[in-house]
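Sequence in, structure out.
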Amino acid sequence: MTDYPRAPNRMTPEQFSAALNQNKLTLREFCRLTGTGVKTAERWLADEKDIPNWVPVTLALFTLPGALPMASAVAQKFAKEESNG
């Protein structure tokens, strides 16, 4: 648990974990899809760092039909482009 005051209306670690489960995403999959560092997301889950406002928005968008496959395809494309140079 954190010893700093949480910003109002921020997603809690419990809500983040539940949203990952609802979307059937592992933490690593979420990080790959969003370009988030795994250590950063682990800090969110450990309540060491506030979860940014874009996270619940993105997780909500992932619930739309076809959104996860589309996000995965885009993430793979970017990863391939990065590895090629």
